[in-house]
Write a structure and sequence with these properties.
Radius of gyration: 22 Å
CATH topology of the largest domain: FAD/NAD(P)-binding domain
Number of helices: 12
Strand content: 25-35%
CATH class of the largest domain: Alpha Beta
Oligomer: single chain
Shape: globular
Strand order of the largest sheet: 7-6-15-16-17-14-18-21
Number of strands: 21
Bound molecules: 8-demethyl-8-dimethylamino-flavin-adenine-dinucleotide
Helix content: 25-40%
CATH architecture of the largest domain: 3-Layer(bba) Sandwich
Distance between the termini: 43 Å
Largest sheet: 8 strands, mixed
Length: 400
């Protein structure tokens, strides 16, 4: 440690104030475990970063169980229908009436994060905003440390019994894992989405999935005035490559507005390019360092699983940390990785299935891609006609 570094101590250092870190922080705080959340960004940024919106019923139950669901129960909207559109027509699945009869709650991630943060701070929780974790040191001992750089550039250091890496896929937790300590499974699905937020009321009372020869288009309500859209596009295109007019024309075409009704247009207020990728780290623990949320595994957003898995893992990790720190029982921590990986791989499998259901060859027309396009068409036809496949879909679509 250099002279200029300040040293602070706690039981658990949580890296990242996203859904995983804030659920974990709240649950530790609730049970009286001393912890701190270190967050690289400023509070205003964290509270306005728009990402997920579809929360599974199980996620809502977890948040309810810990008194963290007040906002989403008040302002979130139940959602249980999706509509598929393709050259073969359209069909709807009321997944709330299929499978295990579960629904989504639509509640923008930034609102959930704001609720979690407000609650954490109100109950005495500590969040150090503008503080970037640089590295996790000594994770193979029982006194790991986290080196940080504060908003003013000053270095610092935290010591703890455990470190929870909830700082996403590019965070310090992943970077600090020694080579060979974990294995990374990775899949680039070869698909790119232009993700858009539009100040436009939803155009369907369902999640819309359009399978089109020009590429996939998706429609997801966020609020009564805001809609999220996705457009499959070329790898490498800048987010601002398409004008608003081109975006709406393309959405209209792929969603088959001429046949099924025009889209409600509005200003595109946010856009970003997402390459659909998935990865999983195994195991999710290196000594005193545990990984949760996107840091543990990235699920492509095709099936809306990431935030749901983050909340689930945070609850499992919180229970295990409490058992260890308050009761000297480390069984939960020992089982943490295997328990979470079972959920993660199921979500990965379903999300991969969704990608193959929704995306065609996009620009290529060799025999192999035509073959895969026909498989996809047949897969959609099975979903349209097979009740048992619909039940399977509903169970995996809304569950974690
Ligand atoms: P987050 O939310 O990325 O939070 C990590 C936090 O860590 C901070 N951080 C650091 N802090 C300190 N030091 C460092 N070195 C740090 N490095 C990073 C970051 O600033 C950030 O605040 O991770 P977390 O908590 O694991 O939560 C994961 C979810 O955010 C993510 O899985 C979902 O958003 C995925 N996702 C969706 N998930 C759903 O369940 N339902 C959906 O409908 C859904 N839609 C989506 C999505 C993700 C999308 N994108 C942008 C990939 C839609 C999109 C477009």
């Amino acid at each position: 440690m250099t002279d200029r570094q300040t040293l602070s101590t706690t039981d658990v250092v949580v890296l990242g104030a996203g859904p995983a870190g804030l659920v974990l922080g709240n649950l530790l705080q609730e049970r009286g475990v001393d912890c701190v959340v270190l967050e690289r960004a400023e509070r205003a940024y964290v509270q306005t970063r728009a990402r997920a919106g579809f929360l599974a019923a199980h996620t809502v139950r977890i948040l309810e169980r810990h008194g963290l669901a007040e906002g989403l129960l008040r302002r979130g909207r139940a959602h249980s229908v999706c509509e598929f559109r393709s050259a073969d027509g359209r069909f709807r699945l009321d997944y709330g009436a299929l499978g295990q009869g579960e629904r989504h709650t639509v509640y923008p991630q930034q609102q959930l994060v704001t609720d979690l943060l407000t609650r954490f701070l109100a109950s005495g929780g500590r969040v150090e905003f503008g503080t970037e974790a640089v590295a996790v040191l000594d994770a193979d001992t029982d006194r790991p440390a986290v080196t940080v750089r504060g908003a003013d550039g000053r270095p610092g250091r935290w010591r703890a019994r455990y470190v929870a890496g909830c700082d996403g896929r590019h965070g310090a937790a992943r970077r600090s894992l020694p080579a060979g300590s974990v294995r990374r499974y990775h899949c680039d699905h070869g698909v790119t989405w232009l993700g858009l937020l539009a100040e436009a009321p939803p155009s369907l009372d369902a999640v819309g999935y359009a399978v089109h020869e020009r590429g996939f288009a998706g429609h997801m309500a966020r609020t009564s005035e805001i809609t999220r859209y996705y457009l499959q596009c070329e790898r490498g295109i800048p987010a601002d490559a398409w004008s608003e007019e081109r975006i709406w024309d393309e959405l209209e075409l792929r969603m088959r507005g001429a046949e099924y009704g025009p889209l409600n247009r509005g200003r595109v207020v946010r856009r970003g390019v997402v390459d659909l990728e998935s990865d999983v780290l195994e195991p999710l623990r290196h000594g005193s360092l545990f990984l949760a949320g996107d840091a543990a595994g990235l699920v492509s957003p095709s099936a809306a699983k990431g935030a749901n898995l983050a909340v689930l893992q945070a609850e499992i990790l919180a229970g295990a940390l409490v058992d260890d720190l308050l009761h000297g029982d480390s069984a939960g921590l020992d089982a943490y990785s295997a328990r979470c990986l079972a959920y993660i791989w199921r979500a990965q499998e379903f999300s991969h299935w969704m990608i193959r259901l929704l995306h065609g060859s996009y620009g290529t027309s060799d025999g192999r891609s035509l073959f895969h396009d026909s498989l996809r068409r047949s897969r959609l036809a099975s979903l349209r006609t097979s009740r048992s496949l619909q039940d399977w879909f509903a169970e995996h679509y809304v569950g974690v």
